[in-house]
Design brief:
543 residues, alpha/beta, six-stranded mixed β-sheet, four-stranded parallel β-sheet, 21 helices, binds FE-MO-S cluster
């Protein structure tokens, strides 16, 4: 408990120290991506720009964002990677997005890695025929409802037209299967964020709004957007909704089905978990069909309760509100118990989070609940709005890399556009504290003087650890073992290592337990690299 009173750490030296080691031009550029936060006067941060060649970045590629992140977690669409086998293999399942087939959609293609396995000759003479053959084969073997094609770098370089192949095969298979392609070549954007945008456009064009049927037992119908069921998070949210009597129409895209995408426009509210990866679909659903969206967060018990209350308020039904309050009260008993227990050890400990485009923000909630301090955080590929809030969107400079990504214009649906709330109703709800179509970003919720760093480089990561010795560092597999060799435990916040779910109340309890074990374990002090005690370290190759 004593650490609570400890004065805050001074993080001002980091930037100068790190920039001093870079060449002048690099230092100038990186300097704009390293800022000391002030929640009252949010500083401008450089984000979503190219990584400087030679710097070891945490980022992934555009194909990863489109196939791996957004479409990948769907269970009844065959996702074919058009490209060399490595792209398909290394984007296969390591993210731990889970699926649970049911009677409505018994298919489960998640355990398969579909790839055209392009060879040298395909690169020289073209791969379209091989792609057609792969689609025929997939159709004959699985008879899926839909087949999606994802372009990898070489596909764009040699000029294979995946969209033409999709049209050709739709005709050949007489329209029995919905086939569509994505121009999501790895190099197309500066990170996986471009892939999210391309995937959102494709979802809108090829799936959303295709089926008007209204299913489900509850009348309060919501979508959860930007939730990918890593470690079972979406299952935890679904169970919670069930207890509250809220109908989950579509989850995008954890454990989702083609039908969920097609009927998403029948929901009355969209809850946006990961703003970065899916805000485009949230906006499209609003523009085309009149469904408002709200930022939600199911990471953290308090955040979960807050989100549920927002849903209750939105629908304004007393019975629903009462049920939600009852569920919160019940769940909070075991949450508080687990929290108190973990907090005995975790209180006052320091965390650093460098993940993706939303979790570096969301997980600070859970660390707060554990009494821990997040002294530094950043996204790999977030945009300025994910840091500074959506109000900065009009001021973001559009560069050549962003222009490379198609912007689709969306119109009101001529027959199905139906505003779920009138302007007055929305205003009234806003005056009661609900915020529509908004996201305040990470910086508004971080303390003054904390370090916010975009697209953290490996060198900067090592410096952070050397200078400030956090008790836990959160990142991904590329960082994990380097950090642990420095004697600091690393929790993977992409795939959760072997853990999860971490969403909703049950997830919060899991997280408290896991963090108490990881961050409060004395074994890390024993981690010593051989070169720390010996002048010369020799080793032999083991073949
Ligand atoms: Fe959204 Fe994600 Fe994330 Fe993301 Fe990702 Fe991910 Fe992530 Mo890894 S969609 S931005 S591209 S919350 S895969 S489930 S964990 S980097 S913070």
């Amino acid at each position: 408990m004593s650490k609570d009173t400890e004065k805050d750490i001074d993080l001002t030296e980091f930037k100068d120290e790190v920039l001093a080691a870079y060449p002048k031009k690099v230092a100038k550029k990186r300097g704009k991506a390293i800022v000391l936060n002030d929640p009252d006067e949010i500083p401008l941060i450089q984000a979503n720009v190219r990584t400087i060649p030679g710097i070891i970045t945490q980022r992934g590629c555009t194909y990863a964002g489109c196939k791996g992140v957004v479409l990948g977690p769907t269970r009844d669409i065959v996702n074919i990677t058009h490209g060399p086998i490595g792209c398909g293999f290394y984007s296969w399942l390591t993210r731990r997005n889970q699926t649970r087939p049911d009677e409505q959609a018994p298919e489960n293609f998640i355990p398969y890695a579909f790839s055209t396995d392009m060879q040298d000759s395909n690169i020289v003479f073209g791969g379209e025929e091989k792609l057609k053959q792969a689609i025929r084969e997939a159709y004959e073997l699985f008879h899926p409802k839909a087949i999606a094609i994802f372009s990898t770098c070489p596909v764009g370089l040699i000029g294979d037209d995946v969209h033409r192949v999709a049209r050709h095969m739709t005709e050949e298979l007489e329209g029995k299967v919905n086939i569509f392609g994505f121009s999501c070549e790895g190099y197309r954007g500066v990170s996986q964020s471009a892939g999210h945008h391309i995937a959102n456009n494709g979802l809108y064009r090829n799936l959303i709004g295709k089926d008007d049927s209204v299913d489900g037992k509850y009348k309060f119908r919501v979508n959860v957007l930007g939730e990918y069921n890593i470690g079972g998070d979406a299952f935890a949210i679904e169970t919670l909704f069930d207890k509250c009597g809220i109908q989950l129409v579509a989850t995008m895209s954890g454990n989702s089905t083609k039908k969920q995408f097609e009927t998403a426009h029948t929901a009355d509210l969209s809850l946006v978990m990961c703003h970065r990866s899916i805000n485009y679909v949230a906006e499209m659903l609003e523009t085309s069909f009149g469904i408002p969206w709200m930022k939600a967060n199911f990471i953290g018990a308090e955040a979960t309760a807050k989100t549920l209350r927002k849903v209750g308020k939105y629908f304004g039904d007393q019975e629903l509100i009462d049920r939600i309050e009852k569920v919160i009260a019940e769940e909070m008993i075991s949450v508080k118990e687990a929290q108190e227990k973990a907090k005995e050890k975790t209180n006052g400990k320091l965390a650093m989070l460098f993940v993706g485009g939303s979790r570096a923000h969301h997980y600070q909630e859970l660390f707060n609940e554990l009494g821990m301090k997040t002294i530094s955080a950043g996204y790999e590929f977030g945009h300025r709005d994910d840091y500074e809030g959506r109000r900065v969107i009009p001021t973001i400079q559009i560069d050549a890399d962003s222009r490379n990504i198609e912007q689709i214009t969306v119109y009101e649906d001529s027959t199905r556009y139906k505003p779920r709330k009138t302007e007055e109703e929305l205003k009234a709800l806003e005056s009661e504290g609900l915020e529509f179509n908004g996201y305040e970003g990470m910086m508004a919720e971080m303390k003054k003087g904390t370090l916010v760093i975009d697209d953290l480089s490996h060198y900067e990561m090592e410096k952070l650890i050397e200078m400030y010795h956090p008790d836990i560092f959160c990142a991904g597999i590329k960082e994990k073992f380097c950090v642990q060799k420095m004697g600091i435990p690393l929790k993977q916040l992409h795939n959760y290592d072997y853990g999860g779910p971490y969403a909703a109340f049950e997830g919060a309890i899991n997280f408290y337990k896991d963090i108490e074990q990881i961050a409060c374990c004395s074994i890390w002090k024993e981690m010593k690299a051989p070169w720390e005690s010996e002048d010369i370290v020799e080793a032999e190759y083991a073949y």
